[in-house]
Design brief:
This protein has 245 residues and is mainly alpha-helical. Helices cover 75% and strands 0% of the residues. It has one domain.
Amino acid sequence: MTTTVLTQAADTRRTRMTWPTVLALHLLPAAATFAAALALGPLVRAWHLPPQFALTLAFAFVLTPIELGLLLRAAGWSWRGLPGILAFRRKLPLRLYLTILPCVTAMAVGLVVLLAPLEQRILDRYPASWLLPPDSDAFPVSTMVGTLLFTLAVDGLFNPAVEELYFRAYLLPRLPVRGALAVVTSAGLFALQHYWQPEKFVFVFVAQLLLIAIMLRVRSVRISIAAHCLTNSLAILLALGAVLS
């Protein structure tokens, strides 16, 4: 099933990419984003904003524009040409969203709980406090609410939607491998490009395996967009709720 779906998608989306191109398109946009976040860090701290806001700004003004730009370039710099380069565009009935999304959310929460001890061991060995604040109490509630609301718009909605179009509907069908190997490759490269959170590599990899499998089963990137936005937004909303409480 997986091989057939990917082969059909590749046939309709034309050429497969070479490995150097695959690696560059998967890893370099996030590398530029990480570099931008590090460069913005001192400025954000000088503004008395939470350090993770540097990453949100890098998502908004580096990562998403690069990925959108690469999609538009492949589409001949035409918004109308975008559907022609994207696979898995099937529309789904509402009942599928209502059935699948709660299951995906429950599995994501289960993964978070299951992997929490491993992630803590990684953080103990490689602390991320140089980029992410250890706790939000150091900042005024109004500052945290404002930055989290901006983060919700960027990393809860816009960025994950673009990521799914870019990684799943555009890059996945063009990988030089097919079947289960393509699924593992796509999930692995997506996890690897999260340079700023090495403790989350395993979670992102497993979560992406799940999302890609569901997307291929229903042949619609719309469901992976919805699931990615929902899980990202849920995490941000929980942080927002903690700040407000």
